[in-house]
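Encode chain A's predicted structure.
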Amino acid sequence: MSTSALRAAMVPVTRQMRAYFAPVNRETETPTIFDPGSGAFPFSAPPSPWIDLGWIENFERSYSTPTNAVQSGARSLPAAQFRGPLEARVDFSFVEWGKLQMALSCGSEHMNVLAPMAGSAPSPSGGTPAAGIAVLPGSTASELMFGPGTTSAFPVGTLLAVDVDYQQQTGYVGSGIAGAYVSNAAAVKWDPNYVRRVTFNVGRVAEVTANSILLAQALPGGAPANGASAQEVVAFVDREGGSFFQEWSALFVAEEETGGRVCFYYPRLSPSPGAKTSGAFLRERLLDVAKPLSAIALEAGFIALPFVDTNDGQVVLCYRSYFPAAAAAAY
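Encoded structure for chain A:
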């Protein structure tokens, strides 16, 4: 093979960037690990708990950690270098809309609008919902077990929120994935449905049997906890404001057209305002499709939080991996 062919294989070319997110254990601040050497990450069907959030646009990484020099001697010559405060961020546009895409772009509590009961007083984040239906033991993340005659309440195509009743506890709430943090139980003690309002355990009904419901996608928070109930979700809503900060692990993949594949892994990302323009922060962006049609993209921005690498104890914000193309030169 010629030298020129080897050099050409060293140029990564991609059409788009793809985003995958996975939960961080908020109690222990333990991220979901992406190991580039495992060979067990099929990008078309990512392993749990990774969630494929589709193609993204306008992907930008920035790193503003200053590097300073120690100066010594009569002439104050640089003798050594040291890094200042670590700071890095990621900004991009979600092309696809879904619950997690909205949650990440808003950055605070993201809510499920539960189907209301008759005569419910209106509320911008959803009024009093119809009562939930208990989920029975033996349920899994993909199949929900119910008592006889109750599955007809959730026909095929229905979105469901599946989680426990709120019982005036404080701290993080939401099975498997923290959906909110309650610091004052008095603020939400009247609402036994609050956990299901904020849970990420949401799925769409694909099939209904006499005693169970099969979901089109597994619940991202895992199998329902004991005492969980299911309620219909009619919409998703987020808000400008709120005191809760999301935190997720993220993997961005530049899939190869030619050359190798490039991956950017952030163990801990916390949403921050989106792309800045004219002194303000964009929340949505219109992407031209064909006049007069435009796609509405969600603007998302994140700051990277620190992670201690178990191999050498170094504090890290991001890992950049490169998988060379076959027969590519090493240098």
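The first strand starts at residue 13 and ends at 23.
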